From TrEMBL:
Belongs to the phosphofructokinase type A (PFKA) family. Mixed-substrate PFK group III subfamily. Its EC number is 2.7.1.11. Catalyzes the phosphorylation of D-fructose 6-phosphate to fructose 1,6-bisphosphate by ATP, the first committing step of glycolysis. The lineage of its organism: Bacteria, Bacillati, Actinomycetota, Actinomycetes, Micrococcales. This is ATP-dependent 6-phosphofructokinase. It comes from the Bacteria. Homodimer or homotetramer.
């Protein structure tokens, strides 16, 4: 059996470990022939691939980035996945001698995996995203690393903020789901955490900041990039569009900081963490999760469990349907946010 491995969407720490796990189990244990396509669907359509074996993946687990490269190149060359698109993919697969795919990615990638599988093109999903917003799984690999990086930033900003009696506003990633902000804020002891799912007014934010000042402390505010204060018509965006054609988010911290300063009289500074959250070596948790996910994906191929995604549930890796994985965006529930909100200020 010949399996194609393909990464798409944004990079996420742990992707190399997932590739390594899938190849070690698939090639050495199950006897598969495996190939990796460079830069996602671009490599698939342009014929750029490499063979994957034990020597190719040696030493990958601790490495950040993606050894195969990843991109937001479109999988479908004609449209949005109609039969003509599926015919192109089948023809390419026949050229490469492929029997199926292991697709490593987030919501968009797993949606494509489901579309392929529904069209009779065999696919299995491996869930990666720093946003942790895929359904069907407790955690996605990459999330723990992003939170750890954000938490370190919180720790560092707190010391400089306290030194100057400033309010510090840290912006982290999170377009529609505030998991990074919630976990980093809780781990770092931020006095305010703002997420897309639960808008707050500027007045309420300033009230929390003043409450902290009145206790003789300096506030640390963590805000997800997709947060929209009450009364704002749209999220704060930068120039241009992202790889999915959506407005490029970023800069809400730089909007909030002067508003907080003007209304409270407290000197306030903004920091946008940006793509630092995606880079560097994955944490031990992400290395283990990604490796286990890769091993399980190869086992799923052996067992013929196409149309599934490898999901962490409790302490077990389970096979869930791609339909369950992409049927909803996993956002922060109201009760989780309210638990944290009780201690703001």
């Amino acid at each position: 059996m010949r399996i194609g491995v393909l990464c798409s969407g944004g990079d996420s720490p742990g992707m190399n470990a997932a590739i390594r796990g899938a190849v070690l189990r698939g090639v050495d244990v199950h006897g598969f022939d495996m190939v990796g396509f460079m830069d996602g669907w671009r490599g698939f359509h342009e014929g750029e691939w490499i063979p994957l074996d034990r020597s190719t993946v040696r030493g990958l687990s601790p490495l950040g980035g993606v050894m195969l490269g990843t991109s937001r190149a479109r999988p479908f060359v004609h449209g949005d996945g109609d039969e003509s698109d599926m015919r192109v993919i089948r023809e390419r697969m026949a050229e490469y001698g492929l029997d199926g795919f292991l697709l490593i990615g987030g919501n968009g990638t797993q949606t494509v995996a489901k579309m392929l599988n529904d069209a009779g093109i065999r696919a299995i999903g491996l869930p990666k995203t720093i946003d942790n917003d895929l359904g069907g799984t407790d955690y996605t690999f990459g999330f723990d690393t992003a939170v750890s990086i954000a938490c370190e930033a919180v720790d560092r900003l707190r010391t400089t903020g306290e030194s100057h009696r400033r309010c510090m506003v840290l912006e982290v990633m999170g377009r529609n789901a505030g998991w990074i902000a919630l976990h980093a804020g809780m781990a770092g002891g931020a006095q305010v955490t703002l997420i897309p799912e639960h808008p707050e007014s500027i007045e309420q934010i300033c009230e929390w900041v003043l409450s902290v000042r009145n206790r003789g402390r300096s506030s640390l505010v963590v805000v997800a990039e997709g947060f929209k204060p009450t009364g704002f018509d749209d999220e704060v965006t930068r120039e241009g569009l992202d790889g999915f054609g959506r407005p490029r988010l970023g800069g809400i911290a730089e909007v909030l900081a002067p508003l907080i300063e003007s209304r409270t009289g407290i000197e306030t500074r903004a920091t946008v963490l940006g793509h630092v959250q995606r880079g560097g070596s994955p944490t031990a948790f992400d290395r283990v999760l990604a490796t286990r996910t890769g091993l399980a994906a190869a086992d799923a191929v052996k067992e013929g469990l196409w149309g599934t995604m490898m999901a962490l549930r409790g302490d077990s890796i389970e096979f869930v349907s791609l339909e369950e994985a992409v049927s909803r965006l996993k956002t922060v529930p109201a009760d989780r946010y309210e638990q944290a909100r009780l201690n703001f200020g």
